[in-house]
Every structure is written in C-alpha cells, then in structure tokens.
C-alpha cells in the first residue's frame, strides 16, 4: 500500500512551474513608447516645428534685457523724447579711425579730440535757430555743455523741447523737416557738432525760416 504522504510530495515536486508569457508595462512606460514611436514618424515634423516656434516666442516674450551700465551713478544712455535726443558718455565709444577694403570707419568724437581740433560753436555761441522745410537733419554734439532746442507742438506751454548735453556726453538728435532747432553753447569751452542732411540745403532759398525764436 502506497504511502499517501510520499505521493503528495511526488505530485508537488513534478508539477511544472507556470511562468507568465507576457509582462504588463506600467501606464507611463506605454505612453512613453507611444510618444517615441510618434516622433519617429514623418508626420511629427509639423508638431515639432510648432513646438519650437512656441518655445522661441515664450523666450522672447519673457526675456528681460540687461539694462545698460551706468557711469558715475547716471544711466549710460539717456533718451529725451521732447527734444528727440539721445545722449551718452563719450568714453563709451573710444574707437580710432580705421580703413579696410570696405571703406572708412571712425568715431568723430575721438578723432576730433585726438587731433586737437578747435570747436565749432564758441562759448556762448549759437547755431541754427532755423527751420528747414525740405530736408531732415541728424546732429552729433559733444565737447562742451550744450543746450539743444527742438520745436515740438506737443509741448503746449512753450512749443519746444530742450535738453542739456554735458561736456563729457555725446548727443545724437534727429530733426525732421519743417521742425525748428537750435544749438547753444553754455560752457567755457567750444562745442563740436556734425550735421547731416538728406537733401542739399540752399541758404538763400525760401525753404528755410531763420530766427525762429526771438529769445535766442
């Protein structure tokens, strides 16, 4: 008669082990494989391009530019909208005269200073106080404390804006046609300036009004 305990033991030892044939992946792994498979297809290119454009727009939208450095506690570049003028410290652009196959490049401020040229507006002197009806002018002013006056109809009480350019600053001003302007030296040293017109000016023409402001 067979021992029942031994039969049960033999049955347990000879029973084959059942192993799972498939391994179920976590939901996040399955999602990652689906995304990877999609990105390998050509149809994903418009999606990637749109994503790149969106990220670029967000980067530009929330970018905060670094403010310009200050010199001596004052801003390096100052904009005066009433006189349509920008001024900055002359030491910011100490570039020499240079020439290559493309032409000439110079900093007129440094060039005039290094050459020891005399100023164009003597202390207490005045240039301008006129209005050109046929040309636009751009000015570069430096070398002395100088007042620049520009006609501005938005300033109701005076009808003009004014800005002071310090002796160690450079002023860049745009004066559109039919806009009066004037430069006044307020220093004990001469003022340098360069004036550029987009059309020739005939001083004897009726296209220019002279002595616009009687207080100058």
UniProtKB/TrEMBL annotation:
Highest taxon above the source species: Eukaryota
Organism field: Dichanthelium oligosanthes
Listed GO CC annotations: endosome; trans-Golgi network
Descriptive protein name: Cupin type-1 domain-containing protein
InterPro entries for the chain: RmlC-like_jellyroll
């Amino acid at each position: 008669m067979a021992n029942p305990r031994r039969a049960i033991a033999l049955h347990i030892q000879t029973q084959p082990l059942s192993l799972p044939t498939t391994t179920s992946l976590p939901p996040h792994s399955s999602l990652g494989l689906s995304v990877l498979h999609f990105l390998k297809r050509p149809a994903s290119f418009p999606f990637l391009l749109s994503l790149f454009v969106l990220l670029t727009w967000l980067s530009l939208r929330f970018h905060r530019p670094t403010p310009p450095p200050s010199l001596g506690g004052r801003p390096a570049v100052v904009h005066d909208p009433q006189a349509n003028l920008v001024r900055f410290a002359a030491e910011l652009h100490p570039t020499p005269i240079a020439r290559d196959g493309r032409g000439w490049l110079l900093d007129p401020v440094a060039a005039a200073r290094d050459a020891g040229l005399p100023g164009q507006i003597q202390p207490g002197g005045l240039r301008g106080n006129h209005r050109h009806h046929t040309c636009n002018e751009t000015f570069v002013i430096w070398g002395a404390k100088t007042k620049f006056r520009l006609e501005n109809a938005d300033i109701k009480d005076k009808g003009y804006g004014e800005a002071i350019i310090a002796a160690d600053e450079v002023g860049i001003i745009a004066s559109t046609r039919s806009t009066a302007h004037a430069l006044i030296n307020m220093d004990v040293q001469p003022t340098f300036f360069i004036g550029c017109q987009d059309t020739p000016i005939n001083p004897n023409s009726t296209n220019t009004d002279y002595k616009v402001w009687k207080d100058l």
